[in-house]
Each structure stands twice: as structure tokens, then as C-alpha cells.
Amino acid sequence: MKKLFILSFLASITLIAQEKMSIKHQEWELKSFKENSVLISEQEGIWLDNISKPEISLYKAKGNSITDKAMIICPGGGLFFSAYEKEGVKLAKKLAQNGITAVILKYRTYPRKGSVIKWSQTLWDKPQMAIDSAKIILPYSSKDALSAIELIRNNASKYNINPNKIGLMGFSAGGAVTMEAAYTSVIKNQPNFIAPIYPWMDIVDNQKVPLNKPPAFVSCANDDPLELAAPSVQIYQDWILAGAEAELHMFSKGGHGYGMNKINAPVDRWSQLLIDWILAL
To answer: Maximum distance among all alpha carbons in the chain?
Structure first.
């Protein structure tokens, strides 16, 4: 049964992701290991770890109202793995169906022999070790995000995308990648709008709002066990104080890592709120 589910999942990626592209990157000094794809559960889907070669998968906009906007998605996973289906594929499909070109970024993650996913589960009671390990990888992951923006911008006409309407978003550690990339971007790779979703800001150094002041969509749950509600609100406050556009959606319940899962709570509406926000930009 599990094998059939994996085959079905991989087939769905092949049918819907119209194009995959490698991202140019400088080889790191860290040792690379074989990338793994693991089916966690039917709800969580497939997670990837030991990602050392970044790439993007592009889902072209379709439907009756196709826009010229694109959103690059950074799944979460602590920078130890990528929750590729729950926080990548499912959202990419929904964005594309609503006329927004979606791009899933497979950015580099923490390299370790064997299963990084299993090893990362041992870090729950070692938060500082998790932070220190993730900080080692964040510069590489955020550079992958910046390279993805530049790649899409350089090929904007090919995909009927406005080069000035390219967004970047991410979940948890992917939210950290989003923020670090926005903070360190330059003109050629600046995101035009951003959407950090329960961003793990413990691994991001304090930064100022970028000079281009990209509109921001921020969302989190008050009961996030990683206590990411306050940092999410802080991003919103920083943007407002800088005179930038920002939208904040805080939910009373939702926990951490809900992604595109349905938990029968108001937080289930967050992705539609995101779509409405993008369309209104």
C-alpha cells in the first residue's frame, strides 16, 4: 500500500510540475550525502533530506483568470529536511489553479550520513543544538532562494511572468529562508512580495526591512509550541513601522506545521487568504 502511495505521489508531481530546473550554486565545503525521500504518513506525505543540489519545480498558472504573478515556495523542516508535499506540492497546485505560477524550491539542507530526518527527531530536547546546526545551513539555503528568484526573473517572459511580480514564501525554517533572503537581497534577486508562514526566526539575525519594502503576508497560530507567534507579529510591526505594506493573520489554534493539512479549524483558511492577498497586489 505504501509503495502504491509513493508511486501515485511521484506520478502526480510528474503530471503537474511542467518543468524542473537546477539552480546554479557554488559547491559548499561541507560533505554531501545521498538525498533521501521518505514517506512519513498519508497526511504528511513525502519528506526529503540530505539535499545538496538545489532545484526548482515550476507549476504553470492555469484556470480562467491567469495572472502574471509567481510565488516561490520554501517548505519547512528545520533546514534538516523538506516537508516537500505538505508545504510544497499541495500549495503549488492550489496557487496554480488560482492563476498564480508556483515554484517549489528544493534548497540545500543539513548534510549527515544516513537519515537526517531520524536524527532531527532527537533534537527536540536540544533546541540550542538545533539552532546552531540550522544556522550553519541558512546562508546556503537563502542563497538558493535568491538564485531561484534571479532564475525566474531572467526567464520571466518564457513563463508569462512579470519580472516585478515574483514573490517568496516559506514555512517555519522555510520562513527563515524567506526572511534571510529578503534581508540580504540585491536588486537582481529581490522578492517583490514575501509570505513568512510561522517563520522560525531564532536562526535569523536581526535585520532591517529591505529598502524595496516588499509587501508582506504573515501568518501563525497563537498556540504554536515553538513560540513563533511573537516573532511573526514582530515582522508585521517592523514592516508597518517602516511604512511598508503588511497583512497579519494570527489564529487562536493551529499549532506548528499545519501547512496545507486540514485540521477543521479557522486556520484552514490561511491559504485562501494568501491567494486573495496575492491577487490583490
So the answer is: 53
Q: How far apart are CA 35 and CA 248, in angstroms?
A: 36
Q: 30-44, 172-186, 232-246: which has the minimum mean pLDDT?
A: 30-44
Whole-angstrom CA distances from 214 to 62, 101, 116, 159 are 25, 18, 34, 22
Inter-CA distances, 87 with 2, 40, 68, 114, 170, Å: 20, 13, 23, 23, 8
Give the domain CATH number at 61: 3.40.50.1820
- Crossing angle of the two packed helices 90-97 and 2-16, in degrees rounded to 10: 40
Instruction: Please list, in sequence order, all residues whose beta carbon lies within 8 angstroms of the beta carbon of residue 219, skipping any fewer than 6 positions away.
Output: 195, 197, 198, 232, 248, 249, 250, 251, 270, 273, 274
pLDDT tens profile 168-195: 999 999 999 999 999 999 999 999 999 9
| Integer angstrom CA distances of residue 173 from 83, 105, 201, 210, 263 | 10, 13, 8, 20, 21
CA distance linking residue 224 with residue 206, whole number of Å: 21
Q: What is the domain extent for residue 84?
A: 2-280
DSSP secondary structure code for residue 78 in this structure: B
Band (pLDDT 50/70/90 cuts) for residue 15 is: very low
Q: 237, 233, 176: which is closest to 204 by C-alpha?
A: 176
* 229 CB-side CA count, 13 A: 13
**Three-state SS at 58:** strand
CA distances (Å), 115 to each of 10, 34, 37, 105, in order?
20, 10, 10, 21
- For the chain, the domain total comes to 1
pTM of the model: 0.93
